[in-house]
Amino acid sequence: MPAPTEAADTILIFPPQSEFALQAPHLALPQLVAYLRSRGVASDYVDLNIRFYRFLASAEILTRQMDRLVQHREALHRRPSLSDAELTQLLELSRIEGLRTGAATLGDPSRLRHMDALLRCRFLFAPLMENLPKGFEATLDWVSKGRESVITAYYAQLDLAHWVGARSLVGISVAFHIQLYPALELARRIRALRGGRTKVVLGGSQLSLMTAPQKRALARLPYVDAVVAHEGELPLLRICEQLDESTGVDFSKVPNVYYQSAGGTVPSPRFDLPVAIGDLPTPEFNAEELTLYLKPVSLPVHVSKGCYWGKCKFCDYTRLYTPGQAKASNRPLEKLLADIQGLTRRHGIASFLLISEAIPPAYYRSLSERLIEMDLDLEFWSYCRVEKSYDFHFFQTLYRAGVRRLTFGVEATTD
Length: 415
What we know:
Elements: E1 10-14, H1 28-38, E2 43-47, H2 48-58, H3 60-78, H4 84-93, H5 96-106, H6 116-130, H7 136-145, H8 150-156, H9 160-164, E3 169-173, H10 180-194, E4 199-203, H11 205-208, H12 212-219, E5 226-228, H13 233-240, E6 257-258, E7 299-302, E8 304-306, E9 328-330, H14 333-347, E10 351-355, H15 361-374, E11 379-385, H16 392-401, E12 403-409
Parallel strand pairs: 1-2, 1-3, 3-4, 4-5, 7-10, 10-11, 11-12
Antiparallel strand pairs: 5-6, 8-9
Helix pairs in contact: 3-4, 3-6, 5-6, 7-10, 15-16
């Protein structure tokens, strides 16, 4: 079992459950760790999400679920007639052997290619996730009452002392809304394990999307010391700078956080602008952990912050910006290329996720031309916005550079 760096006094945790972070770590924690280390803070991260899915693939609970699905399939076959919904269920259950193969493959990363096992297992895992709280108030209620679930079963077999140790600070990331319940249950267990000796701080994009009253409610929980809104580099650094002080952490000195004061109130945060994307170091990935992910592993690298368009009504990304933050900014091209080359040399990875709400067309063209010049033989995937300026030559240039997948966001066909 890979262990966090022993000297690290701060550990960041990515909790279950996210299918979107099974081919690589979510970028937030490797980026935060790289920044903290660049400022002299001993820190590390652990991905409990990928371990959660391996737990599902190997645990007795999965075998029981498989047996239940087989019994349900046989019961449907015996019925004289079926509804449309039951016919759909039967079609899914006819793939039961594929599910069984997929489960075995998920437990053996050397056999996995292109997430095929995950796709076969999604139907198998889904029933295990249904009995989880839905909504903010229900989540708080579940955690306060200690209700049992597949998440508590997973945490019960974890050696939290191994991950947390005697560290002074644990940061828990909530990048997706379905991570809120696992994150709070984890925070509660860490507080029970360590008491007040370890500060527990919540952060992540989904918390930034919550209302101020919801963030204040989280900050009042007895197992949460602070809630970070927006980007976490500066808040975490300011907290870490105080960990050795005998007086403890004064959260009033920390920007962008909600915390409960000695008087019981939760003051409004003071918002500081985030670290510029050009000033961030190359993310630092845990080489041992990379062996846990589904193959082929694709490392995420930061291309831009914000969206150059920023007008789509359906998109909530603009709500992630710190007040006063620029609408959009790109990582300097040569720094991005240095990130890609450095990570390729360090980890032997040939596939990258270009993290951006939407890469500006001119920047993408320049990046592709440089990649063609460098002849790196890599593959890339990114988000894009549909633009009238796109033509055959544009996509041909991207393809020659190694771009093999584009995900487009479309709000309306008239704009």
